[in-house]
Amino acid sequence: MRNGIPDTVALDETNGALVIIDQTALPGELKLLSLTTLEEMIDAIKALKVRGAPAIGAAAAIGLYLAVKAAGMDKFADIKAAFAASRPTAVNLFWALGRMERAALENPDGPIEALRLEALAIRDEDIAACRAIGEHGLTLLDGVEGVLTHCNAGRLAAVRYGTALAPVYAGLERGRRFKVYAGETRPLLQGARLTAYELCAAGADVTLICDSMAADVMRRGRVQAVIVGSDRIAANGDVCNKIGTSGLAVLAKHYGVPFYVCAPSSTIDPKAASGADIPIEERDGGEVTDMWYAERMAPPGVKVYNPAFDVTPGGLVSAIVTERGVVRPPYSF
Ligand code: MRU
Questions:
Q1: 109 alpha carbon to ligand 1 midpoint, in Å?
Q2: CA 211 to the chain's CA centroid
Q3: The pLDDT value given to residue 4
């Protein structure tokens, strides 16, 4: 529990359930879902009831353990494949599934218990990694008053502490109250619904802006840093993150604002040589034309392009912060 909000992802051993905060119900209702079937868990990831790269990885690890425990080890490959097909971009999902598979293979005499322990280790390591990211990230913010963030890379995107918002939380713990500008993040409004919610709950100073207002905020000198998370970082430092991130990086370069990326090392994918190798999820056009509106806001039949992520060239990234420390360009992972 942090700031009155329980962990985003948890294992309920008594009831054999993956417990998540239903992020589609926020900010209206803080609702916990207890998921016990494979179908419920996969649906939760696809529908973004649980979302954010580290949280997806932890949820899939716990879900894989529970589903294999219920169905038996001979169903392992099918269950793993079902999780792997749930969302394509956040590499933390595939990293977690790979770790789980290795744990089972290395413990043929007790694979189910090995899966349980590995899922709990992934959960615990995420909490520790995010705390460390907060400490390292805070060292970049000396003299900074205002920061701009995008999407939600806070505690709701990880198990308990968050990535891009971790330095903000680390600062709050020391009495530093950054002025955080949160881009609303069309089309799914993770910034408006989730970042604004969790920062308000934490007593942080948060101001919500439409995505189109970022240039104005930078031109007026209201922010001295942009901090975002990532779903996958390529070997050359190209950063894939929520759609709209790369535009912010271009603006930040123009206005001379440092652009920082905070992510656990599990978000680095050395197999992706550059951003071109990162699969970008495309989602339903209804998220753009209908969702959140009282009535449809675009003519029937209009074509919609709805990529959920974009790639920021590593050359626009001032520093990448992981639990291991701060890395600056040229990047080579
Ligand atoms: O589609 P989402 O909401 O899962 O996308 C999340 C993001 O893009 C986050 O910025 C990213 O996962 C970093 S979260 C620590």
A1: 37
A2: 18
A3: 77
| 3-state secondary structure (DSSP) of residue 183 | strand
d(CA 146, CA 217): 10
Q: Which residues of 97-121 are buried (b: 16+ CB within 10 A; e: fewer)?
A: bebbbebbeeeeeebeebbbebbbe
| Tens-place pLDDT, residues 269-311 | 999 999 999 999 999 999 999 999 999 999 999 999 999 999 9
Using only C-alpha atoms, the chain has a radius of gyration, in whole angstroms, of 19
Question: Would you state the pLDDT for residue 166?
Answer: 98
Q: What is the pLDDT of residues 141-189, one digit of tens each?
A: 999 999 999 999 999 999 999 999 999 999 999 999 999 999 999 999 9
Q: Which of 231, 238, 269, 310 is catalytic?
A: 231
Tokens 């040229």 -> residue = 330
Q: How far apart are CA 248 and CA 265, in angstroms?
A: 23
| The pair of three-digit structure tokens given for residue 302, joined into one six-digit string | 């209009």
pLDDT (mean) for 34-50: 98
231 is catalytic: yes
Alpha-carbon distance 92 to 78, whole Å? Answer: 19
> Diameter of the chain by CA atoms?
63
Distance 74 CA to ligand 1 centre (A): 33
pTM over 0.90: yes
What is the C-alpha separation between 83 and 63, in angstroms, rounded? 9
- d(CA 89, CA 198) in angstroms, rounded, equals 24
* CA 258, 264, 270, 272 torsion-angle sign: negative
Closest C-alpha residue for ligand 1 atom 8: 242
Ligand 1 midpoint to CA 179 (Å): 21
In what order do the strands lie in the sheet containing 17-21? 9-12, 17-21, 32-35
Beta carbons of 234 and 209 less than 8 angstroms apart: no
pLDDT of residue 2: 64
Alpha carbons 332 and 8: distance in angstroms, whole number: 32
pLDDT of residue 277: 98
Residue 229 Cα: closest atom of ligand 1 = 13
What's 195's DSSP letter? Answer: I
